[in-house]
Amino acid sequence: MTTSTPYPIGTPLQPWGDAEKQQWRARQVRHRSHADDVVAVVDRLRSRFDVTEYGRLDYDGETFPLLAIQSRHWDDTLPTILVTGGVHGYETSGVHGALQFVDQHAEAYAGRINLLVVPCVSPWAYERIHRWNPLAIDPNRSFRDGSPAEESAALVRLFAPFRDRALVHIDLHETTDTDETEFRPALAARDGKPSTPEGIPDGFYLVGDTEDPQPDFQQAIIAAVEQVTHIAPPDAKHEIIGSPVVAHGVINYPVKALGLCAGITNARYRTTTEVYPDSPRATPEQCNAAQVAALRAAIDYALAHP
């Protein structure tokens, strides 16, 4: 089954060239401010945490600082916890959930962990409420050495010292209705392929690592989030977005092979959250709270099972 209406850019089944990518970029509109929503919030946290600018993006003179928040009293003898949000800029609760966790809960772990939080990996896309960077590249398929996405390359460099030292890396995402109406059709058009609907699951789910699934860790997170919002059920094929459901609310991907953010390090515990913000059963506050609950459960489980 393919969509009946062709994507408005390009020729169906022909990959985009530079002209089509420029046409796509010209259509992108700034809807919100990274400076107001992220940078200003991070600035207010500087009195309690260390903040590092680990890179700076420059797209045609439009610049964005890439900011990381970390424990003030870093101790290399403690386990390191890595948190990322906003890899896809349109996935709002990943950004705001990460910031909410730092503000409300991070200090409770002082002296027990080293915490490194990158709340918004893709600020240009955050402002446009989009999945890709301005080069029409998906950062979450680009986390590898020599990445064509500077957002991804900068994060790989930041996390390099923790590749074999991190205990946890949790990457905060959303699955939205626009995945089906905009982003999957755009991807198919860009790559010259047919667009095949997969459906949007109604609820929260996790994406573990096929090569190292850590099922008990994933279920501990699901149990905590279930107190905040509902968990996505499998579809008629017992799948979520085309992947087999391996446990309640959990699917697995080969994260390293796909160049996903969760595969940057060899952290013992790795997962990707997926919140569903378009559900009539969830508010923006619940979506943020679900991300916070996932973070707390992930850290608590890892500390109990080091």
How are the strands of the largest sheet arranged?
1-2-4-3-5-10-6-9
Instruction: Return the domain count.
Output: 1
Distance between the termini: 46 Å
So what's the overall shape? globular
Percentage of β-strand residues: 15-25%
Number of strands: 10
Give the mean pLDDT.
96
Task: Tell me the series of helices and strands, N- to C-terminal.
Answer: HHEEEHEHHEHEHEEEEH
State the fourth-level CATH superfamily. Zn peptidases
Protein name: Peptidase
Keywords: Hydrolase, Metal-binding, Zinc
Cofactor: Zn(2+)
Family: Belongs to the peptidase M14 family.
Describe the structure.
Helix content is 32%, strand content 19%. The strands form two sheets. An eight-stranded mixed β-sheet has the order 1-2-4-3-5-10-6-9, with helices on both faces. A two-stranded antiparallel sheet has the order 7-8. The chain is an alpha/beta fold. The relative contact order is 0.16. It has one domain (18-304): Zn peptidases (Aminopeptidase), CATH 3.40.630. The chain has helices spanning 18-26, 34-45, 92-104, 123-128, 150-159, 177-191, 215-225, 284-304; strands at 50-59, 62-70, 80-85, 114-118, 166-174, 205-209, 239-240, 243-244, 250-253, 269-275. It has eight helices and ten strands. Strand 7 (239-240) and strand 8 (243-244) form a beta hairpin. This is Peptidase. It comes from Noviluteimonas caseinilytica.
